[in-house]
Design goal:
Elements (H helix, E strand, L loop, with lengths): L9 E5 L6 E5 L3 H5 L10 H9 L4
Antiparallel strand pairs: 1-2
């Protein structure tokens, strides 16, 4: 499930089957569909913590 749009040739995707969040660059879409792309965050909660964490 897309968490962001693909307007900038990349997006964050939530994996409904594994609960992970992927930082997907559109250039590796075929590898993602084949299951060859590692998740960036293991859980949606980890993604939210990163997303809302104040930058220093």
């Amino acid at each position: 499930m897309a968490l962001t749009s693909d307007e900038s040739e990349g997006m964050y995707l939530y994996g409904k089957n594994d609960g992970a969040v992927y930082d997907l660059d559109i250039s590796v879409l075929n590898d993602f569909l084949k299951g060859k792309i590692q998740d960036r965050w293991a859980t949606f909660n980890d993604f939210l913590i990163w997303y809302f964490e104040p930058s220093v």
